Task: inverse folding
């Protein structure tokens, strides 16, 4: 897995023993991309590391830590994700085209196997090429280099992974106008039996309770809580903040904006409008 300088993005994957061969063919050692992976069930000499006894969020943190820091974007994608371009470009070329927006985070429209009401909304899918959709699925997130230290390490306190995913989406809030969901490609989730053993699938009620505990930690340090209260949301429910932003962005019909290639999203003032960055929860802030 050689990695040349100045490539546009790298692909990062967690897999039981070997990466998705379709993803390897698409992204490994290309002109504008490289491919890295870690394993958790069996050692692989080509992997960055063998990570037994880790949950998903811990293993994704290892990927973020070990990958060479020389790319514009870091693309985290699950090994069971299927990418379906809707037009003439390959998945590789579609990602490069969409990165011309220079977004804070890029993701793709949800398809089969993704728990989202958008999956059935074909009218919305076909109505535009790009949208700003809060709280998208974490199966694929393409993160700008300037925000890696904001999002990582992921929240791992409860080791349920849903808490880590929800926290990531909460941390996207200051950048929602620059977080792009491309409708030009759909991503599907095709889970296999091995990965079905992930902790967050075992007890939904337990994982929801841990999400609520995580939100109880974050809530005192979130500066816009009054908007949820005024909107009649139950602020003790971890999903209240998701419901608020999903409804807001749907009502406002917000569209993505283009940014310059040398954009730096790591702006303390921007983040501080939403969060108390002195909180230990945001220890990555320097």
Result:
């Amino acid at each position: 897995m050689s990695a040349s300088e100045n490539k546009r993005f790298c692909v990062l994957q967690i897999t039981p023993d070997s990466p998705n061969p379709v993803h390897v063919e698409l992204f490994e050692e290309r002109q504008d991309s490289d491919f890295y992976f870690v394993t958790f069930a069996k050692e692989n000499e080509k992997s960055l590391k063998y990570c037994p006894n880790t949950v998903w969020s811990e293993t994704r943190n290892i990927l973020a830590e070990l990958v060479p820091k020389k790319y514009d974007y870091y693309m985290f994608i699950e090994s069971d994700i299927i990418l379906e371009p809707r037009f003439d470009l390959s998945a590789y070329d579609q990602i490069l085209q969409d990165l011309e927006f220079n977004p804070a985070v890029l993701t793709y429209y949800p398809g089969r196997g993704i728990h989202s009401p958008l999956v059935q909304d074909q009218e919305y899918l076909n109505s535009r090429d790009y949208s700003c959709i809060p709280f998208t699925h974490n199966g694929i997130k393409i993160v700008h280099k300037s925000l890696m230290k904001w999002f990582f390490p992921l929240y791992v306190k409860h080791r349920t992974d849903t808490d880590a995913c929800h926290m990531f989406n909460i941390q996207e809030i200051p950048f929602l106008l620059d977080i792009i969901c491309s409708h030009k490609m759909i991503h599907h989730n095709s889970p296999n039996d091995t990965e079905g053993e992930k902790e967050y699938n075992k007890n939904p009620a337990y994982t929801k309770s841990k999400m609520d505990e995580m939100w109880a930690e974050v809530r005192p340090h979130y500066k816009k809580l009054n908007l949820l209260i005024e909107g009649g949301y139950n602020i003790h429910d971890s999903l209240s903040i998701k419901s608020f932003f999903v409804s807001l962005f749907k009502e406002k019909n917000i569209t993505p904006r283009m940014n310059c290639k040398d954009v730096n999203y790591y702006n303390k003032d921007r983040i501080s409008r939403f969060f108390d960055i002195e909180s230990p929860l945001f220890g990555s802030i320097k």
